[in-house]
């Protein structure tokens, strides 16, 4: 007898919830003053970004592989090299995702399962060092 495996996609409510999550995420990014830096690295219209994120999250959570069927392997880090993502942009992205997650997924346990790997991924996507940090192998300038 085979046991049915429930994916995160199914557990959170499937397509309508993933749509709501990704829509709310970009709505927050577009509206929150504290997300202005991450918003600035996106195109003027967020529609394309929202659709790609919906497709990616659908497959990531165990639903249909929409993103890979349309676009191939995600190669997330390399696809994001066009945008400078430093700690500020990363943290603002995480702020939007955390709020959207909290607003759209009722179960704290499911939110926790989704949050941890997404938070690690956001840190992996950072491709710009903090501006106030001296480059490695170079001493900070003496400002006296």
Report the sheet-strand fraction.
under 5%
Structural domain tally: 1
For CATH, the homologous superfamily is named as Globins
- Total number of beta strands: 0
Helix content: 55-70%
CATH class: Mainly Alpha
Terminus-to-terminus distance: 76 Å
> N-to-C SSE series?
HHHHHHHH
Which structural category fits the helices and strands?
mainly alpha
Shape: globular
Here the CATH topology equals: Globin-like
Task: Count the DSSP helices.
Answer: 8
Question: Which runs of at least 5 residues are low in confidence (pLDDT < 50)?
Answer: 134-144
Write structural notes for this entry:
This protein is mainly alpha-helical and 144 residues long. It has one domain: Globin-like (Orthogonal Bundle), CATH 1.10.490. The chain contains 8 helices and no strands. The protein has helices spanning 8-12, 15-31, 36-40, 47-60, 66-71, 76-79, 87-104, 108-125. The radius of gyration is 18 Å and the shape is globular. Mean pLDDT is 86; it is low at 134-144.
Summarize the structure.
By secondary structure, the chain is mostly helical.
What is this structure's SSE topology?
Elements lengths: L7 H5 L2 H17 L4 H5 L6 H14 L5 H6 L4 H4 L7 H18 L3 H18 L19
Family: Belongs to the truncated hemoglobin family. Group II subfamily.
GO molecular function: heme binding; metal ion binding; oxygen binding; oxygen carrier activity
Keywords: Heme, Iron, Metal-binding, Transport
